[in-house]
Amino acid sequence: MGYKYLLAAFCLWAVTVPLLPTSSHGLVRIGLKKRRLDVLSINAARTARKEGISKYGSKGLYYNMRTGGEDIVPLKNYLDAQYYGEIGIGSPPQQFTVIFDTGSSNLWVPSAKCYFSVACYFHSKYKASRSSTYTKNGKTCDINYGSGSVSGFLSQDNVEVGNLIVKDQVFIEATREGSLTFVLAKFDGILGLGFQEISVANVTPVWYNMVQQGMLDDEIFSFWLNRNPDAKEGGEIVFGGVDERHFKGKHVYVPVTQKGYWQFNMGDILIANQSTGVCKGGCAAIVDSGTSLLAGPTSVVAEINHAIGAEGVVSTECKEVVSQYGDLIWDLLIAGVKPDKVCSQIGLCIFNGTKHVSPGIKTVVEKENEKLGDDVVCTACELTVIWVQTQLKQKRTKERVLSYVTQLCESIPSPMGESVVDCNNIAGMPNLTFTIGEKPFTLTPEQYVLKTGDGINTICVSGFMAFDVPPPRGPLWILGDVFMGVYHTVFDFGNLELGFAEAA
């Protein structure tokens, strides 16, 4: 089996969650445990890749939720979400495994009325007739994932999470799961922990109802993820507070800047204490418990992967642009032409007089079997401009800058977003630092490189993947489990803050 299929599946940890008793301090604890990769997980990732939706592929750039016609940036590949646990719906409770996901806001599970989707036959299904607390709603809704979707209707019933019983919770009974991804998934549904602003049909999320029904002492929940692959205990979600055993020192708090996802403003990103310059003026960032890696703009991820010696797919177009237009790009930038106008002036991006017609810098590269079109050349040009502009600030010579940019072309991640590194070189790789609340949050090579396999079959993977969102929403960073495993995270709903502290 080629390494590219293993790479697509390396973050598919299957997790079981024992429900622990509520403490005397008003905290509800949900323990998290990991299980290593298996053949089914690898085959599932391969299937998702063929469908073009694994990670943030070219077909899965936008996450459409039928709420009012809005397009929402995708923060999720549910196939790769790691942490799931058991909840109950109805009276008596019917058991389901769900992902606890800070990147979405709805609760959905398969319905007993799901007759024509193969996925429903492999998972537990909710049967309204067996619940004495069921209330009919019936409003139809759907969530589109690009090449896969979930459709169904709204229902209302009690939901059991740990020892809490959330009364009259509206959720989605899924009657159609339109992707083979869901057939192979190890979970039944999703329990979203995001804000109501991104909730399908404006349904009140489970978390909101926990708060409104007075079940918790504090309007916060916290995540501790144990990144030790050999540990029996995979981590813990605490509803209503924090466990001081799970972190060191004090949390650094930053305000939520946009309700929907748990979004905040992040500062500069440094590679070996040297600024990348991209987020010096601030970048939007999102904390997402359902994303395994750390995702960011292709231009920066390529720089990071180059610095750590990661090998991505060589972009012929990128190197061609540097070779043929590098001097001209340099001269235009020196002359004061605005960076977003350079590629249109040299004819590599169509310009209609007001803005680029190109879709902007895309996620990674096009599918392997797709012809390279003008938009790919435009993307390569835009990347080159970003890199040259960053290097100009370092006051380096043109020859040195263009040589460096050519090397960066070779570090553009592969179509699935992943890149491999030499396991023997981890000790010599640089630290990566993220500035949050004007404080440095550093990841060491041992923390941002993930390993899969054993012995001579061990593969080391960069914890960074490319994900591009154009302005004004972007640039956007997604701090997934690679980051959350190092830094204990508090989601403060009452004060609209996020807190980060070193995990214990």
Calculate the terminal CA-CA distance, rounded to whole Å. 37 Å
Measured as a percent range, the helix fraction is: 10-25%
Q: Which descriptor suits the 3D outline?
A: globular
The Rg value, from CA coordinates, equals: 23 Å
Topology, number of strands:
28
Describe the structure.
This protein is α+β, with helices and mostly antiparallel strands and 504 residues long. 21% of the residues lie in helices and 30% in strands. The chain has 11 helices and 28 strands. The protein has helices spanning 3-9, 39-51, 180-184, 206-212, 298-307, 316-334, 339-345, 374-392, 398-410, 445-448, 481-484, and strands at 14-16, 28-35, 63-65, 71-72, 84-89, 94-101, 107-110, 135-144, 149-161, 164-177, 189-192, 220-225, 235-239, 247-255, 263-266, 269-271, 274-275, 283-287, 294-296, 420-421, 432-436, 439-443, 449-452, 459-462, 464-466, 476-479, 487-492, 497-503. The strands form 5 sheets. A 7-stranded antiparallel sheet has the order 1-2-13-12-27-28-14. Helix 5 packs across helix 9 (398-410), helix 6 (316-334) crosses helix 8 (374-392) and helix 8 crosses helix 9. Mean pLDDT is 77; it is low at 1-24, 35-81 and 352-373.
In short:
By secondary structure, the chain is an alpha+beta fold. It has helices spanning 3-9, 39-51, 180-184, 206-212, 298-307, 316-334, 339-345, 374-392, 398-410, 445-448, 481-484; strands at residues 14-16, 28-35, 63-65, 71-72, 84-89, 94-101, 107-110, 135-144, 149-161, 164-177, 189-192, 220-225, 235-239, 247-255, 263-266, 269-271, 274-275, 283-287, 294-296, 420-421, 432-436, 439-443, 449-452, 459-462, 464-466, 476-479, 487-492, 497-503.
